[in-house]
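Structure, all two chains, one model.
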Amino acid sequence: MVKVRIPTPLQRLTGGKEEVEGKTGTVIDLINDLEARHPGIAERISEGGKVRRFVNIYVNEEDIRFLQAEQTQVKDGDEVSIVPAIAGGRRGL
Amino acid sequence: MGYVNGLKCRECGREYPVDPIYVCEFCFGPLEVVYDYNKIKRVLKKKNIERREKNLWRYKELLPIDGEPQVGLHSGFTPLVKADNLARELGVKTLYVKDDTVAHPTLSFKDRVVAVALTKAKEFGFDTVACASTGNLAHSVAAHGAKAGFRRFVFIPATLEPSKIIASLVYEPNLVAVDGNYDEVNRLCSEIANKYKWAFVNINIRPFYAEGSKSQGFEIIEQLGWEAPDNVVVPCASGSLLTKVWKSFKEFKQIGLLKELGTKVFAAQATGCSPIATAIKNGTDVIRPVKPDTIAKSLAIGNPADGFYATQVVKETGGHAEDVSDEEIIAGMKLLARTEGIFAETAGGVTVAVAKKLIEQGRIGRNETTVLCITGNGLKTQEALAGHTVEMHKIKPRLDAFEEILKKIDKDGR
């Protein structure tokens, strides 16, 4: 199981939950799987299979842009955070 | 009056009304002001600009206000200095310094953006203004806000130079020194901005605030006799100034005040905080955030909000980027002071040193016209030069003591 942290502006799409479950595989698979249970969420964070420029996705605190981007593998027990860039980035950089 | 149609997301293009908002609700992209250029083209001519007061509001139709200017009525229209001595030193034919070290009232280009932001804050009906700042913005919000009668909150990194802190406190704002770097201060301010109904100039007023930087570009064009330079070198913190200088050139072209535009835009950063320059040099548009470590504190933004757009402008115009070490920055500051009599802050040293590098690399042509954007005054950060200046001569109050020193000075050829 993968823990996915949802930012406040998208919690309307997850019934107010700040954490939901995600599936293992690539990040883009995980996003598309979220869409099945939380319709509308995928287009907010990605477009045409690419994560939107002002959305940061972290797998275990590491920005996926510096891993394998959308193809980054997410394993059982990993934590994924979705953070709008405009919130000012991440604590501790 | 008013020539603004609304706000628009730079990423997905969704449109919004004119409000104190800055991020697209749908895709989280930044919002930008959209103007009615056809309407502006009909009213804004060289002749009426030239008749107006010499401040940034002479281009008011291209600034995002609805009524008349209310703040910063003496800001902008700083000198464009023909820098022949520096040109000779760097081995180029024509060089200009856009000298915002003498901006009114707080000696940096931030007086431009704050003039626009606070006029907009008045139009929105705010009574409190605030900012996250590395120093210059703090001064400008504190000063312009005092004159305009706002309650003021200024958030700075606690590690800022003491002289920069005094230069804010004198205007008696509520100054909050945060134990963290600029990126952390900025993040805290985003949280505060969500909770309190204040005009945070570089957060919820950002789309309007950032437009103020265009005035520097408008002035460059007008002061060059309504012509664009071949090259412009712009220091980058968030990257906003660079994108807005380019936008200003394009707008003048679009409304017919500029016949030809082929300017190359160059980005200047300190090596100790060069996320934008690094991306450009590596040929990517992905900005990798860094932890800043440079004496150029006014440029020390490790996670630059407009970094991506800055890389796009550089690519679009055929420019480039360079970064320089702390030693090169100090040498740049001293060179500008020694040749042109202009004492710029560390960011100015970055711009001069980067220009030198780009000229040596052949990226800036020796027969071309180049403008260096010098954005802040060196008197604010004198600490940076401690131990790096020439020595003074100490003497007894006697003529022979002076003449002894003079002999030595003559021998050294100074």
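Chain B has 15 helices and 13 strands.
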